[in-house]
Each structure stands twice: as structure tokens, then as C-alpha cells.
Description:
Elements: E1 4-9, E2 23-27, E3 29-31, E4 35-37, E5 40-43, E6 46-49, E7 52-56, E8 68-78, E9 83-92, E10 96-101, E11 110-116, E12 122-128, E13 131-137, E14 142-146, E15 152-154, E16 160-166, E17 169-174, E18 180-185, E19 199-203, E20 211-217, E21 220-225, E22 228-235, E23 238-246, E24 251-259, E25 262-267, E26 270-274, E27 279-281, E28 298-302, E29 305-310, E30 331-336, E31 341-346, E32 350-357, E33 362-368, E34 377-380, E35 384-385, E36 388-389, E37 392-396, E38 406-415, E39 420-425, E40 428-433, E41 438-448, E42 451-457, E43 464-473
Amino acid sequence: MKEKKQIKIDNFNNFNSSDKINTENFYNFLPIDKLTPSNGVEVAKFPKLYTDLTEEELGIDDLNINSVCGVTYFKMYFPDSQNTQHRILIYGDDNKVYINQLFCGTPMLLWLFNLQFNSPPVCLSYKTDDTDSIILTSSDKMVVWHTNYSPYEILDVPIITSMCMNDEVLFCTIKDPAFKIWYATNLDAENVGQVTPESGYISLEDDLGYSRKILTFNEDIYVFRDYGISKINYIKNDITVSQIYLSNTKIYTDTVSICGNVIMFMTKDGIYSFNGARVTKTDVDIRNLLPETNEHTAASSLGQKYYLALRLDFNDDKSILCETGDYVNNALVVIDITDYSYEIIRGVDIKSLLPVKTELFEKMLVTFNTMNNSKLGQIVETSSCFGTSLPKYWKSSDLTNNFHTKLFTKLSIQASENVTFNLIYDDKNISFSTYRDGLNEFCFKILCKQVKLEISSNETDASVDKVVLDYYEY
């Protein structure tokens, strides 16, 4: 028998490169230098007043709806009163649009000008000549609302799937035919779908596929296609189009989001960033968890974080929260683009995400496909889902660096109480649960060639700092 050796785990995301140890799987833990609780979800709340930051719910339970199908945030500045109003729009399964004005002292939601849409509207807020406006467009009509005026309807327009503004020109992708990009100068939404001196369309029929999403980034216009990215150069009705990127796999349209100084998006084989010139595959490696298709993915960004709701296959026999019934998505991946560290929140079936940024707060709102679909939620630091603790899990790859026989004798842990540690060795396993906060030690004798470590807990605030395994190598 040789001298005693130790395996030390003091970084749960990027292990010592010489050991070549990696995380095999994790969820509801944030794996950094130590394991800490992930984010969670609770009912969305907003401050009552600028002078009173006490938060209240919007009062969705008072509406005659069973499901929140869409949500929009925008703000309008009124020059006469020099007042800015922050507004939340809720679209319910009764097809009505409800509005709440933030910081007005009441969480009441009111039916907005008797507006109804056949499907959740696509929205775009913009400013021109010191006037704030918003366009809402659905499968049946377009509604334009300017500051100090009532909304008005435009019926004869194509079904718009995305919109952006650039130099007072409105650009739109449409549902059918999806290879056309419509534009209208002077922000005249009424001209979308008509060929006039102030409006028209660009036809993109090439190997990149249909046009799915258009956005302005660094003052340029980019179109995300089924299999690539195009750039539109528009100067006074003089239009040219160039291909920027060709993808080998389909781009999931609803994952395209501007995050900091890049555009993030996802395809069937991973998560990518685009800086306006080059597409780079990120180090966020969830390929082993991706199912064959993920058509209901959705994403948005807040600050330097990219929030991606999707369906993952965790390859186990567990059912976490929403997975106990029918579900569409079951996970939220939150990526910090400053270093591409990430967390996986498992057990939430998120449908859409919406960032809200005001002078006093910022938060990410979420709606749901199935479980909790009657609620408007928000991402919070508490590792729970509407009061239910999120079960936490982390698993290492093989901790040994060779196939020599080893005698493991001791496990030392810095952790909170009620955290379970499971050593999987050869075809057996042995488990321990921490009995106090701080240092926990367990003595045993295990003779094996390979060993993996599983860490789990049902506690909301569970954390693990350092893990040390003592062993002797034969």
C-alpha cells in the first residue's frame, strides 16, 4: 500500500485541469467554487409607489381567465406633464388585453380599451419626435397606440411574427410567405403589406430558409432565418442583403435575444453567440441533455444574463415538480455571458420570458405552459417554485485518474445540514447525510477502481463548500 492521498473538490464547475474531472450532471444547484442554491420562481410583484417599495401582486386572480398567455412591458413619456408611466399588459385566454400602471398605488388590472386579439400579440414599443408608441399585432389585426391618444386598429395587414425599428423605418417578418421582409418608412405601420413609395418588401429566397425574426443590433438590421443570419443594408429605399452565417442545424427562433454586446441563440446542437461579425459556439455544454426537438424553447435577456426555457432529458427516473404531470418545457438555463458560467433550474414549465427595467428595479417575468399557467411569475434568488423547495442535484464524472485499485477511507465535507452524499463505486454505492452545518466527516472502507460522487438535497438553502476524499492506492 502506498501513502495516503486525497481527492479535493473545491470548485464544482471548472475542476483542476490536471485532474480532468468534470461535472456530469446538475440542476437546482449553482455550481461555482461551491454549490449554492439556484434561482427559483415566485408570483410577480411590483412596488406600489415610487416612494413606497412595498410590493404587491397585479391581481390576476380577479380576472376571468384561466391562463396568462402573454405579457408585455412598456413605458410612455408625457411631455406636457413630464411624467413617465410604466405599464404591464396581460393577454389572457379570454382573448382580452388587460393593463396595469406601475407605481400608481393599486395592483388592479383593467381591460384596455375593449381590445381583443385572436392570439397573443407581437409587440414593439418605439419613440419618434418625443412621442412614445406601441404596436400590437396578432393574427387578426394590428393596433397602434400613441401617447395621449386612444389605440386604433388596422385590419388589412399580414400576420407579423417580429418587428424592429431602424432609423425611423419599421421592418417586419411575416408568417406567410415567410421569405418576405416588409418595411415602412416614417414608422407608418399602416403601410405594412402594401407596395407604395413609402413601403415595400424584400424577398429572401435562398438556402438559409424562411425569415423568422428581425432585430436591430449595433445600429444594423439582422434577420434570423431557419438556417442562418442575413444582414439588411437600407439607405433611402436602396436595399442590399448579405449572408452572415450558415447553420448546419435549425435555429430555434424564440431563443434569439440581444444580451449585452452579443446576440444569443440556440440550435439543435448547442448555444451560440453572435457579435455582429462572427458566430461562436459557447462553452455551455448541455448537448447530452437535449432531446431530438425543442420547438417550444423561449429566451430573453436581462443585463449580462441570458435566460433560456426549454425541455431537457435528464436521463433519470425522477419527476421534479412540473414533470409529475403533462408539461412542455421542464428547465430554465441561466447563462452569465461574462464568463459563460450557468445554472439549470429543473421542474418549471416556462412559456415566455419578459425583462422589466425601471429606475427603481429590474426583474425577469415569466409565464407558464401548464402547471401555474394562471400565474404571472418572476425569477427570484430563492431556490423554490411558488413556495415549494427545488430538489437539488450534482454529479461528478469519475474522480479517479487511473484504473488502479484504491482503498477509500474517509469523506470530509463543508456543507449545510441535510445534504446527502452518495459515492458510486464500481457497481455499488454508499450514502451519507450531513448532520450539522459546517464540517462533517464520515469514515468507511471502500475498495474499488473508479468512483463518482452524487450530492443532493431537498432543502431550499442547501450548500456545499469543500469535499475531500482520503484514499490509498495499491
